[in-house]
Design a protein that fits this description.
The complex is a heterodimer of chains A (about 90) and B (about 120).
Chain A (H helix, E strand, L loop, with lengths): L12 H35 L10 H34 L1
Helix pairs in contact in A: 1-2
Chain B lengths: L1 H7 L19 H4 L3 H39 L9 H34 L2
The chains are: A mainly alpha (about 90), B mainly alpha (about 120).
Chain lengths: ~90, ~120
């Protein structure tokens, strides 16, 4: 841990390219993780209403999983609705 | 510093006298990292990025978990945490992590599904 982070500029072009791709990939992973944090936050409030016990009930487990999927459905629905409205507005 | 001295020994004869001490004339090939250095530095760089991401992720999880479990378990803060509050917190932490994993699985399954047949 004591070792400092190597300066990016010291690398040759090929290595720079490789490292850029690597960092981009890590950033994509980070965005995915951020979404998972947001969903967990949201779905915890919706699905885990009582005091936490030693394990989740079946209904809590399925609620959490449904919660993620329905949130994504809602998001798709919303986008589609807005698109439809724009199309309708363009036609009239 | 010993490696500097040894590798500069050969070039010290050509060093021009001047303001800088003669051994200060770093030759180009001394500054240029070797292939192994480069490989090692590349791995160091990647490890530090991975490390930073993991740290960020853990911090986010701990903060959220604390927020949620404090809200659930410590409804009337007393002068210290009671036994039942600690039991609740302990269970809550386990459940929050479990919830995170369930959510993570559901989300990645959904993404995979979309990738396979969009």
């Amino acid at each position: 841990m004591a070792e400092s982070v190597p300066n990016f500029n010291q690398f040759d072009d090929a290595t720079k390219k490789e490292l850029s791709a690597f960092v981009e990939n890590e950033q994509a992973q980070q965005r995915l993780n951020s979404s998972i944090h947001t969903f967990t936050d949201m779905c915890w409030d919706k699905c885990v209403t009582g005091l936490p016990s030693t394990s989740f009930s079946r209904s809590e487990t399925s609620c959490l999983s449904n919660c993620v999927n329905r949130f994504l459905d809602s998001s798709l629905f919303l986008v589609k609705k807005i698109e439809d409205q724009r199309e309708a507005a363009a036609r009239s | 510093m010993s490696f500097l001295g040894s590798s500069l020994g050969s070039s010290s004869g050509t060093a021009s006298p001047g303001f800088w001490p003669s051994h200060f004339q770093c030759s180009e090939d001394l500054l240029k990292p070797t292939l192994e250095d480069m490989q090692r530095n590349k791995e160091l760089f990647m490890a530090s990025v991975r490390n930073e991401m993991a740290l960020l992720n853990a911090q986010q999880l701990i903060n959220k978990c604390n927020e949620k479990c404090f809200q659930k378990c410590v409804t009337k803060p007393g002068t210290s945490l009671s036994g039942s509050e600690e039991t609740c917190l302990s269970r809550c932490i386990d459940r929050y992590l479990e919830a995170f994993n369930i959510v993570s699985r559901s989300y990645t399954d959904r993404l995979k599904e979309r990738q396979e047949r969009p």
